[in-house]
């Protein structure tokens, strides 16, 4: 995934059990960080920031921090007398929730004796202690539901119950969520309890989630699942990835059920069920953004200081024998990465030259990273980057992450130009190329918004099972075809087509044989049926000679894309300028270098810095082939989520179908 929302419950148990918070002073020593101090005291970093807001900057040696003491530390020794332990080796994909079920122990109990799990996730292969009560001891009173005074007609299907003492500010929604109940089930277990009062004892289930409920701020709320709602739909409603919803609500691992009470981000739109102010004590580290309309930053230029721009590219020139020009030519022909780097850099140069006509002057430096993390480190250590406005590059993931990591000390923005891989989170890292996950979700959105009244048919092979499952959640009334081999007949497809409705066929595969047979069959069936073809990933299989482009054109093939087709008419002046400078037609890497660099320079010239430009302006920017709309990542940094949905017509012309705001690039000189 690519985003998991990291949730820390370190401080919640002590808040529930303590009548008053205790503190101590900590004197900062050389080499200490907020993270190391938090681990030493078994609290979260957020807890330190809460009482020491200045700690978000650099910690000064000998300065004092106020540390809220954890109550667990005081309680563990007294409670271990009646406990024995099992040593468990963590297996792949195991979670605390699953271990709690397997060993019949609460997650909080596991964390109590494995303190690193308060702030870290389980690691495959590590050994942890699983507490087990010795025979003859117990820590909760369990009663069968048959012992409760509940009318037979109203008994819920809950085999065992326990007692729960209502805490201040707890609600039915919070308690139901904690014990994996619906609100209706909780009410049926307690028919005589109309209004919850602190101190009242009520009956609840025995399946306890991994944290108590504390209601103190307005970041999260509770939401009761309604009929026909899906996990995908809820992730869209609350603008949170599906895996993050599961992290917040471990019960979702067993599936979404009507009436479940979920913890979700508070969108401010009144979607949840809590009263005002009743939300959990957690902090969100992301803000939603709206792509809005297309921005023309040429009308907003205000900062005309000379821009200090650095480009990192993996030329690897040290590997070339420099005795003759012929050696360079041979190296360029043989080395694809070098060719891409040179093409990209020529686009950078065109953008820098074009920016001059707008009054934007640029001091440009370029470095050869030699495709080495060590070389990146050497470059940064040997040069002054404190006044650099932005770094574009490198191209490869490991060197990009190394660059961002080293330059966090200067807060220099680092823009990843071409990689579509999910990057580590650094506060100064901008991923300009959308990931495959973002492309897929853009197509999901398009299908969900536009497929009303259509007969939806999903064709997916075994390798695309996950995408198939997600599609059926987005489009619950769709029909599914599962090919048994790398071939699909027209007869099998026709059985799922409608004679009266337009058929939207979603083809999910990277197998050339299946793509070829399916598109050929659909092309024949299109003579008597209305058919449009879609995919969430236009992979290399669609470029194979066995997949007929004319078939794709007749099927009005739709797919998500990072860029759109280069429009030679509207960009004629740019093409002529490039031909005059470099004696060739610009390719996609040239255009990418130009579009990205022009976007960076215009943003720097229209705001105090790159970060400020996103504060000042919403909407997206668009140039020859690419558009940019950066959204903040949950754990730091930014990613571009601007995606085109492209369609192919019978004349094999491409057009953008998802973005009426997307206008062709208007030359800056006009």
UniProtKB/TrEMBL annotation:
Signal peptide span: 1-20
Stretches for region Disordered: 269-288
Keywords: Signal
Acidic residues bias spans: 273-288
Gene3D superfamilies membership: 3.40.50.2300, LysM domain
Domain of life from the UniProt record: Bacteria
Domain LysM: 24-67, 86-130, 221-264
Molecular functions (GO terms): lytic endotransglycosylase activity
Family label: Belongs to the leucine-binding protein family.
Record's protein name: Amino acid/amide ABC transporter substrate-binding protein, HAAT family
Organism: Salegentibacter agarivorans
Taxonomic lineage from the root: Bacteria, Pseudomonadati, Bacteroidota, Flavobacteriia, Flavobacteriales
